[in-house]
Specification:
The chain is globular. It folds into two domains: 174 residues, Jelly Rolls (Sandwich); 105 residues, Arc Repressor Mutant, subunit A (Orthogonal Bundle). The two termini are 27 Å apart. The strands form two sheets. Strands 2-3-10-5-8-11 form a six-stranded antiparallel beta sheet, sandwiched between helices. The protein is built from twelve helices and eleven strands. It is 50% helix and 20% strand. The longest helix has 21 residues. Helix 7 crosses helix 8 and helix 9 packs across helix 12. A hairpin with a 2-residue loop joins strand 6 and strand 7. It has 296 residues and is α+β, with helices and mostly antiparallel strands.
Length: 296
């Protein structure tokens, strides 16, 4: 199983600095099978608002443990703190993607309201995908292409202009979403438990490390939660939480100047020594040695 890693605009631009972007707040780009912008079969903890339009081919992913099928003309839209596991994709895959940091949309009231409405509707419908008509898909493609051109321009008021463009684009998505016919699929108790656990874990893994917390919030016994997760994922509750904590620890050690004790505190470890022991057990070296090995 591949290592879980964070996915945000800063890391995306570190690998592909030539992508159209505004600082590390907005990145808009095209991709295909040969130039995917992410390694195949890699799992991500996403930190940005993501909109992806498939323009050709198909892809299979798991989003917070839920299987999602994507085909040409489908939009995938989800907010931060989602676990994305890329399972398979066709050799003719082509897509366009927009990645927005909260710092861009949270400060602009109209844009913030649209984002909140979209994410609320997607959660209510329990579906992060939207199938577009050929006309709507072509219109969205044109809007994304225009945004990429704008990001590469020297517009004097570029940041505000980008906010306005994103607002118009997301308003169109909200309009198409309002006409969507929601088909309620049957979801088994085990599948729903799996989805709800992933949503809780990605939100609370920094401060809540006990199985009991998640079992209580999900109104099941610890034994039942452990049994379902082991059967569906091959991992225990503690293994999943440890994986998320290690992902965040690596990210903080490599991208911040926080002391080891401060990293430990952010991850809910009351004692830096306990954190160091936890890190060494899973990674094979101390946090400081890990930093030095990466040239930080």
């Amino acid at each position: 199983m591949s290592e879980l890693r964070t996915y945000d605009n800063a890391q995306l631009l570190h690998h592909w600095p030539q992508l159209p972007h505004l600082d590390d707040e907005v990145v808009c780009f095209v991709g295909n099978f040969d130039n995917r912008r992410y390694p195949h079969n890699e799992r991500y903890f996403n930190r940005e608002l993501m909109l992806v339009l498939l323009t050709a081919g198909h892809s299979e992913i798991r989003l917070n443990g839920r299987p999602v099928s994507l085909s040409a003309g489908t939009v995938l839209l989800h907010g931060p703190d989602y676990l994305t596991d890329h399972r398979s994709l066709s050799s003719d895959l082509e897509y366009m993607a927009l990645s927005l940091s909260e710092s861009l949309w949270a400060e602009e009231p109209a844009l913030s309201r649209i984002v909140a409405q979209l994410l609320l509707t997607m959660r209510r419908d329990d579906d992060c995908t939207l199938r577009l008509s050929p006309y709507a898909a072509e219109h969205l493609r044109s809007e994304l292409e225009a945004l990429m051109s704008l990001l590469d321009s020297d517009h004097r008021f570029l940041r505000r202009r980008v906010q306005v463009h994103c607002e118009a684009l997301l308003l169109d998505v909200a309009d198409w979403l309002s006409h969507k016919t929601v088909v309620r699929e049957h979801v088994s108790r085990r599948d729903r438990l799996l989805r709800e656990f992933h949503a809780l874990a990605t939100k609370h893994f920094r401060e809540e490390h006990s199985v009991g917390f998640y079992a209580d919030r999900l109104a099941v016994s610890r034994q039942y939660l452990t049994r379902v997760l082991r059967a569906e994922t091959g991992r225990s509750v503690n293994e999943i939480l440890s994986e998320l904590q290690l992902m965040e620890a690596r990210n903080l050690l490599l991208t911040t100047t926080l002391q080891v004790g401060e990293v430990a505190a952010q991850l809910g470890f009351g004692d830096a020594a306990v954190f160091c022991k936890f890190f060494r057990r899973h990674v094979g070296c101390t946090p400081l040695a890990f930093r030095r090995s990466r040239g930080v």
